[in-house]
Amino acid sequence: MSDFLVIGGGVLGLLTARELAAEGATVTLLEKGECGREASWAGGGIVSPLYPWRYSEPVTALAQEAQRAYPALAESLLNETGIDPEWEQSGLLMLDADDAAEALVWAQRVGGRMEALQEEQIYAREPALAQGFEQGLWMPAIANIRNPRLLKSLLASLRANPRVRLVERASVTDFILSPGGDTVSGLVVDQQGQSLQFSAQRIIVTAGAWSAGLLRALSVELPVEPVKGQMLLYRPEKPLLTSIVLTEGRYLIPRRDGHLLAGSTLEHSGFDKSTSDEALRSLQASAQALLPALASTPVLRQWAGLRPGAPQGVPFIGAVPGLRNLYINAGQYRNGLVLAPASVGLMLDILLARSPRVDPRPYDPALRQR
Ligand SMILES: Cc1cc2nc3c(=O)[nH]c(=O)nc-3n(C[C@H](O)[C@H](O)[C@H](O)COP(=O)(O)OP(=O)(O)OC[C@H]3O[C@@H](n4cnc5c(N)ncnc54)[C@H](O)[C@@H]3O)c2cc1C
Predict the structure, then answer these.
(1) Using one digit for the tens of pLDDT, what is the confidence trace for 328-337?
(2) Most exposed: 134, 241, 336, 366, by fewest CB within 10 Å?
(3) How confident is the model at residue 347 (pLDDT cuts 50, 70, 90)?
(4) CB within 6 Å of ligand 1 — which residues?
(5) How many CB atoms lie within 10 A of CB 202?
């Protein structure tokens, strides 16, 4: 029996397992498919909320903490596994935001680096942009991370760690409760048609968009729902951008190797992960409105993922009400990649009774149920 069971092998589950093992604990991670193939793979990897000033304090607190942690995390994964997650401080350029004045006040208050740019400064920075953008906000410290590589390096790290057991194609279907009903004594797991049982002293749900469905088996209701996002991948003949560019909720992300990602849609369509021609056309139109050269650049790939949507994008991090050894870390919505190191750090602070790095109350499932 491991000290901890982690349910779900996305960025949150993988990082949780790595951090717990680093503290000397033994961990078994159960993943219904293959690790690192759902939202955490599908995301864009911007290491910032989009329009960060429009989010509440709890999201900002985790984002700032995580942004500080990312360079060291990427470096330690590269040193340990030889796989570079490509943390790249590309900066973020936001065009024609109509609440720029509020943004600048916010940046000053939270100590974020942000400059207002006029037309000539926008085009000096990104000459391939379409004409007509008059106002910009520039955040030079913002990075992007190549999330599929981040997941690959996390997996390589876990596979080499004797304290960690990864069990893939193992779907948790039910919880077994102690006679008193206040402790989870085991999990029922379906592994390719075989019913297995796993137990641990403590269990952490990091099942992303599926977390609410899982907890429903315990009659615990949590408002986490899937929100589909579709993305496109280009590889222009020559690099067209150096920074992440964002306007009207749509963005382009340049990768180190010349790939360019265009995102993303926001769709409430349950657990359907199919891609659509409508989204393709809409994302292409947004991408070309930013970079006209993309009109003659083929789309290499289109994909979709399911974000774990929670109210206001504030994740649930903490003990599941009514159960002594069950915890949740889910609902990071559009910001699960940026928030991951801080969300996992806070989860560990709670599990290991350390002084919490941020005030834990805004994320506490018990307090938010009232
Ligand atoms: C198009 C798109 C763009 C995005 N862009 C960004 C961005 O630029 N920056 C950013 O910060 N965030 C971004 N996000 C959001 C981010 O990707 C998510 O918030 C984050 O990946 C959630 O991580 P997770 O580990 O909670 O979920 P997931 O990665 O979905 O992992 C959950 C895992 O749990 C497993 N699971 C579920 N149920 C069970 C079960 N019963 N038993 C066992 N395993 C189970 C699933 O198979 C899955 O592997 C984007 C998301 C999308 C879709």
Answers:
(1) 999 999 999 9
(2) 134
(3) very high
(4) 7-13, 30-33, 38-40, 42-46, 171-172, 206-210, 214, 229, 231, 263-264, 305, 307-308, 330, 332-338
(5) 19
Q: Given a cut of 70, is residue 370 above it in pLDDT?
A: no
Q: Please report the pLDDT score of residue 255 as a whole number.
A: 96
Could you give the C-alpha distances from 354 to 5, 199, 205, 218, 349, in angstroms and in order? 20, 24, 20, 28, 5
Give me ligand 1 centre to Cα 36, in Å: 8
**pTM of the shown model:** 0.98
Nearest to 243 by CA among 134, 139, 98: 139
Q: How far is the CA of 24 from the centre of ligand 1 (A)?
A: 26
- Structural domain includes residue 153: yes
Q: 129: CA distance to ligand 1 center in Å? A: 31
Residue 170 falls within a domain, yes or no? yes
Q: What is the number of domains present in the chain?
A: 1
- Residue nearest (by alpha carbon) to ligand 1 atom 18: 336
Closest CA to 310 of 329, 337, 326, 338: 329
Q: Which helix (H) or strand (E) holds 59?
A: helix 57-81
Q: What is the pLDDT of residues 112-151, one digit of tens each?
A: 999 999 999 999 999 999 999 999 999 999 999 999 999 9
Q: Which domain holds residue 25?
A: 1-88+142-224+311-370
- The atom number, within ligand 1, closest to the CA of 11 reads 25
Say which residues have a Cβ less than 8 Å from residue 52's Cβ, sequence separation at least 6.
60, 63, 106, 112, 139
What pLDDT sits at residue 1? 85
CA of 308 to the centre of ligand 1 (A): 7
Give the strand pairing for 250-254 and 244-247.
Answer: antiparallel
Q: Is 284 inside a domain boundary?
A: no
Residue 285 lies in a domain: no
Q: For a pocket test of ligand 1, which of 6, 38, 246 has the largest count of ligand atoms closer than 8 A to its C-beta? A: 38
User: Which CATH number covers residue 77?
Assistant: 3.50.50.60
Query: Which DSSP helix (H) or strand (E) runs through 370?
Result: none
Q: What is the largest CA-CA distance in the chain?
A: 70
CA of 309 to the centre of ligand 1 (A): 10
